[in-house]
């Protein structure tokens, strides 16, 4: 005769997550149930997550549609730990990342034309849904980036936003090998931009504030360093023939405005650093010499894979400071201080 046994109630497996509970609140580390992947999603065991200045959007509540509590983080590197139904290509145990591009609908006008980066209903990792400041996260398959062996988790993580943004902006700029390409700002974005400009075969100019950045700029691959505190950087660029592209990375609209006269014919100010103030320009500054100002945001997961492959081939690497996950508040403050050299990365 069978004995009736009452099975013990299964314990819900939990994990730690660093969340922002409301706009302006400090980070709090909370215990949460490990999330389950839905159809078309995978669960990632997070190994590393970069801290990006745009995480401020979540921490400060700059976007009214963000739902709280929210776990930020859009520079995620980890391992697929479970796959949802209908997921065929991605396998458990595979190394993957998730960047800024957190998903697209595949059906809007832009997606139907293959322009997934500008999807009308695009999702942003760590903004539209919980990101990588936690031990496990789920992500839709269209957001996944395969990470090649040869790049560590902490190296790959910042390349999934800061890396793809600079790489993709420059490779789509129209600048050719040998062209004068200036990178304004030697920081989280700029130190990667200088390396890419060098490896793309441009005449790479780094524009920084103060003479103390010259040695580092040269080491990163700048052929020329311009100190914007000691000289008029726009005039210095004109002495070199004028820039084909100025990749503007430091979030100072005033500094960007001051550089527009450094553009050569058909020159382009390529804006990826987001300051709050307007960029000031007169029509004449743009009309004579057919100059343009263009913004650029990130890239698709496929562009991120191109970025990682290129870095592996050429030796481009982010300079990083790592912090254990538990010290997230300190790490975030370090990023905000602007003193980090140059990307802050959490390790799990
Ligand atoms: Zn779309």
Please, could you describe this protein's structure?
The protein is an alpha/beta fold and 348 residues long. The protein has helices spanning 56-60, 109-112, 153-171, 190-199, 214-220, 233-239, 253-259, 283-287, 301-314, 328-337; strands at 14-20, 27-33, 41-51, 76-83, 95-98, 101-103, 123-124, 136-140, 144-146, 180-184, 203-208, 224-227, 243-248, 263-271, 292-295, 320-324, 343-347. The strands form four sheets. Strands 3, 4, 5, 8, 9, 16 and 17 form a seven-stranded mixed β-sheet that branches. Helix 8 links the parallel strand 14 (263-271) and strand 15. The longest helix is centred in the middle third of the chain and has 19 residues, at 153-171. The termini are far apart. The model has no long low-confidence stretch (mean pLDDT 95). The structure holds zinc ion. The site of zinc ion has 8 residues, from helix 2.
Shape: elongated
Helix content: 25-40%
What portion of residues belong to β-strands?
Answer: 25-35%
Q: Are there runs of 5+ residues with pLDDT below 50, and where?
A: none
- Tally of helical runs: 10
Query: How many strands, what sense, and barrel or not for the largest sheet?
Result: 7 strands, mixed
In this entry the ligands are:
zinc ion
Instruction: Please compute the radius of gyration using only Cα atoms.
Output: 22 Å
Number of strands: 17
Structural class, judged by helices and strands? alpha/beta
């Amino acid at each position: 005769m069978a004995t009736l046994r009452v099975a013990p109630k299964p314990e819900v497996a939990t994990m730690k997550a660093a969340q922002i509970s409301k706009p302006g609140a400090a980070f709090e580390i909370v215990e949460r149930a490990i999330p389950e992947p839905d159809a078309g999603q995978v669960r990632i065991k997070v190994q590393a997550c970069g801290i990006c200045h745009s995480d401020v959007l979540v921490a400060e509540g700059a976007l009214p549609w963000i739902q709280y509590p929210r776990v930020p983080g859009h520079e995620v590197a980890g391992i697929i730990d479970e796959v949802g139904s209908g997921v065929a290509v991605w396998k458990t145990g595979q190394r993957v990342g998730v960047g800024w591009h957190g998903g697209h609908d595949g059906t809007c006008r832009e997606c139907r034309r293959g322009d997934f980066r500008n999807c009308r209903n695009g999702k942003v990792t760590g903004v539209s849904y919980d990101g990588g400041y936690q031990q496990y996260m789920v992500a839709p398959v269209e957001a996944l980036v395969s990470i090649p062996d040869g790049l560590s988790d902490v190296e790959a993580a910042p390349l999934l936003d800061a890396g793809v943004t600079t790489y993709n902006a420059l490779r789509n700029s129209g600048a050719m090998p040998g062209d004068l390409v200036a990178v304004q700002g030697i920081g989280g974005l700029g130190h990667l931009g200088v390396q890419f400009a060098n490896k793309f075969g441009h005449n790479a100019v780094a524009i920084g504030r103060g003479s103390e950045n010259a040695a580092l700029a040269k080491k990163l691959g700048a052929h020329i360093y311009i100190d914007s505190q000691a000289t008029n950087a726009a005039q210095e660029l004109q002495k070199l023939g004028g820039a084909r592209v100025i990749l503007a990375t430091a979030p100072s609209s005033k500094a960007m405005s001051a550089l527009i006269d450094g553009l050569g014919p058909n020159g382009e100010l390529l804006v990826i650093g987001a300051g709050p103030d307007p960029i000031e320009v007169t029509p004449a500054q743009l009309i004579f010499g057919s100059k343009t100002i263009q913004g650029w945001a990130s890239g698709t997961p496929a562009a991120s894979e191109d970025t990682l492959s290129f870095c592996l081939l050429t030796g481009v690497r982010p300079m990083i400071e790592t912090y254990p996950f538990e010290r997230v508040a300190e790490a975030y403050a370090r990023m905000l201080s602007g003193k980090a050299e140059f990307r802050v990365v959490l390790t799990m």
